[in-house]
Design a protein that fits this description.
The protein is mainly alpha-helical and about 200 residues long. The protein has helices spanning about 15-30, 40-45, 50-55, 60-80, 85-105, 105-115, 125-135, 155-170, 175-195. It has 2 domains: about 15-55, Arc Repressor Mutant, subunit A (Orthogonal Bundle); about 85-195, no CATH class. The longest helix is centred in the middle third of the chain and has 22 residues, at about 60-80.
């Protein structure tokens, strides 16, 4: 059986297979094929039909891995932006960075967000990754302690849940692009105010 070459990009020899599959999934999403099949994905990645299953277990697993990519991008950009000293400014910056990542490719990210609500064969870790991102924004270095750690509260987890809620409405088309950042910021301010009052 001859493998087809990925459509749209050159695959360097030795490129990790997982990355090839994820890159191919993103290309399919960019071209408007949110309902791509695993066969479509394998062809786009230039791998055997079984490879996406072997690497990720299911399409839901692929979408969760794409979500993880977004959170990794948010974290890297947040760190590179030299966050301010005060918590409110760090959370504002985290929201600006997170929204910017999501709005760079809104159609792709809506497809990813819309599908990660689907359970897959493996346990997802989007909440843990997102909680760690918000813990970083709050200055909690130990992300394992983030849900109930140093600050004595579950504020990072609450911020993760709140931002995911805003993204859910955005993904469904109920929240316009221009409103995503202001809504997310208003939610974060409310949560932080409640935390400060405690």
């Amino acid at each position: 059986m001859t493998r087809s070459k990925p459509q749209g990009s050159f695959v360097e020899k030795g490129e990790p297979v997982r990355q090839r599959v994820l890159d191919a999934a993103e290309r399919l999403l960019r071209s408007g094929k949110a309902e791509f099949s695993m066969r479509d994905l394998a062809a786009e990645a230039g791998v055997s039909f079984a490879t996406p299953f072997n690497q990720f277990g299911s399409k839901a697993g692929i979408m969760h891995a794409l979500s993880a990519r977004r959170i990794e991008s948010m974290t890297a950009r947040y760190i590179a932006a030299a966050p301010p000293a005060e918590a409110e400014g760090r959370v504002r910056l985290a929201i600006e960075v997170a929204v910017a990542v999501m709005l760079e490719e809104p159609d792709v990210n809506r497809a990813v967000m819309g599908s990660i609500g689907t359970a897959g064969p493996a346990r997802a870790d989007a909440l843990a990754r997102s909680t760690a991102f918000w813990a970083l924004a709050l200055g909690i270095v130990d992300s394992e302690a983030a849900p109930h750690g140093q600050c004595g509260s579950d504020l990072p987890r609450q911020l993760a849940l709140a931002f995911r809620g805003a993204l859910s409405f955005w993904s469904a088309g109920e929240l316009p692009d221009a409103e995503l950042a202001p809504v997310a910021l208003a939610i974060a301010n409310t949560l932080m105010l409640g935390f400060a009052k405690r």
